[in-house]
Amino acid sequence: MTSLATTTATARRLPRIDLWWVPRGLVLGLLAFAIFGPLTNLVLWTVAERWYFPHALPLEYGFSYWQRVFSPRGNAMESLANSVFVASLTVIVALALAVPAGYALARLRLPLRSLILVAFLIPQAFPNLPVYVNIARLFYGLGLNGTIPGVVLVHVTHGLVYAVWIATAAFSAIDRELEEAARSIGASALRTFRDVTLPLAAPGLMASAIFVFLESLDEFTGSFFVGAPDVNLLPLLLYTAGAGGNYQIASITALLLLVPSIGFMLVVERFLKADVLSRVGH
Amino acid sequence: MTPAPFLEVKKASVAYGATTVLEGIDLAIAKGEFVALLGSSGCGKTTLLRTIAGFVKPVAGTISVAGRDVTRLPPDKRGMALVFQSYALWPHMTVAQNIGYGLKLRRQPADAIARRVAEMEALLGLTGLSRRKPAQLSGGQRQRVALGRALAIDPEILLLDEPLSNLDARIRLSVRHEIRALQRRLGITAVHVTHDREEAMVMADRIVILDGGRIAQAGTPEEVYNRPVSSFVAAFMGAENCVSLAGRVTGGHFAIAAGPTNAPCTVPLAGRPLVDGPVVARFRAEAATLVPADDASAKPEGTLVLSGRVESASYPGGHWRHAVVVGPDTVLVDAPAAFAPNTAVKVCVPPQALFLFSPAGAETAKAGPSAYKSNKASELAGA
């Protein structure tokens, strides 16, 4: 004990420079640049009035493009409202499917359990473009093209894998005896689910809701083929602005999309506990 | 002894897939009785408890409470409360919410629930902890919350699944007596699963010893301790010393023949189903006495005397425990004073502490009807 204390004391008196910090610092610096370099560029573009090659920095700064985006005639606010509305609906529909599916996958001994879990990955596994072109053709026939329900449906198929996988993990992380304890003192199966299972799974379900929300907010291909031009969403606005060479509008839109993403990322870390994460996909 | 059984398990069998866990369990428990299900791990005791609770469906047989068949009823309709080994307290509820949950389910008014919860907390020494979450409690406190949650609903039957195994040794001893006293005071019928022999002995009115999914013996603690019906039960109840002898049934006695390590002696049969031929003898370390080999004093009638050699001695406290080599076997014998290793000694086992078993199972399997006949004959001779 005493020898340990003395060693720590000597270590404190003589701070040694660890040479390993040189390569570590380099790698960390490069990583920081890779992450924050493009972001800085994006932020610069949002306040650049004039910026062209070969200048490294904008020639003139100002907020006139922000005014244009947020002016009553600009369609950014409408797109934002649409995007949030579609994302919220997508979360509701996806969770309505994922809660029972996740519970069943976590609790019942299904023979093809892992196969069913993988099935939810299929919408992600195939190249998006041909799939959505076909869906668009199908939805034309059904009258769903260019409608909010149509876009929500597309986003649900896309987000369901997150919803179901995380919900399954959240439910299987709950000790079965906690449910049995409720059953044994008189709670029906439904009551047990409401009072014990659901509150305990809530953080995991919240996390899956956030993932679905973000997926829907960012989803482009499906929104483009099924939604445009009737349902205007933020990624479509971003695309139009970017394709038209209007980098300021595109950057401001991208920044708008980034805000909820970063906000949710900070929150989701609180909700996703290690015991749930370790069960994702199992 | 028992009037009409209150909780009755009839010919219950449980199987998980192809493996049979319980086979033809018959058990009748009277109202207010405390029954301990005792066995080593994997013997099916927890499965039997979960079958009674309704979490496991038997493939055959019935379970009834007060004459009502509950075999097909879900756990919440059986009027039982189960206390889990893990306690299974709900982490998102406070102590008061955990204890009061069963009453909330029964739609009792809030003030009645609060009163009952306070009552349970006072009874179990949890006063002042109402607002704590289970994570903020010690192991002993969690155990009492789990018990309080089960008792709050006034269950007809209290099921306990090794509720003491996660407590440290000192608390365990006091909680044993607390649970027992509480069960007596409230007049609850209780079924308690444990692998701890002493715990079962101290707490239960009746002990049911399970072995490989069957009941090996059921009886009062005194019965299973002093009159084990099989070699397994004897060993499980602490008679771990085992020597092979041979003998014959003569009238109401069993005459043990002289062997390479033992003198002949005759012990009363006392209704035991022994047959002529080899027998397995079991006895406890503390029931035998150790004397020097040249000791010539008279032994009480029927005492089995084995000659052996001391191999080693240790002092577990209160007495010396000797490992004595008797022929091919080694037995443990207690003595008030230590014998030096390699001393020639005699091990004396009084007849009431000597458990004899004919290897009947093996013999029946091999010889079939003839063994049955000789068994019958020995019974007649005994009567």
Automatic annotation (TrEMBL), chain A:
Its main location: membrane. The chain crosses the membrane at residues 21-48, 80-103, 115-140, 152-174, 195-214, 247-268. GO terms for cellular component: plasma membrane. GO terms for biological process: transmembrane transport. CDD domains: TM_PBP2. Keywords: Cell inner membrane, Cell membrane, Membrane, Transmembrane, Transmembrane helix, Transport. It is a multi-pass membrane protein. Pfam families: BPD_transp_1. InterPro entries: MetI-like, MetI-like_sf. Residues 80-268 form the ABC transmembrane type-1 domain. The keyword Cell inner membrane applies. The keyword Transmembrane applies. It is found in: Cell inner membrane; Cell membrane. Belongs to the binding-protein-dependent transport system permease family. This is ABC-type spermidine/putrescine transport system permease subunit II.
Automatic annotation (TrEMBL), chain B:
Residues 7-237 form the ABC transporter domain. One of its GO terms (cellular component) is ATP-binding cassette (ABC) transporter complex. InterPro entries: AAA+_ATPase, ABC_SmlMolc_Importer, ABC_transporter-like_ATP-bd, ABC_transporter-like_CS, Mo/tungstate-bd_C_term_dom, P-loop_NTPase. It is a peripheral membrane protein. It is found in: Cell inner membrane. SMART domains: AAA. Pfam families: ABC_tran. Keywords: ATP-binding, Nucleotide-binding, Transport. The keyword Kinase does not apply. SUPFAM superfamilies: MOP-like, P-loop containing nucleoside triphosphate hydrolases. Its main location: membrane. Signal peptide: none annotated. It comes from the Bacteria. One of its GO terms (molecular function) is ATP binding. Belongs to the ABC transporter superfamily. This is ABC-type Fe3+/spermidine/putrescine transport system ATPase subunit. It comes from Chelatococcus composti.
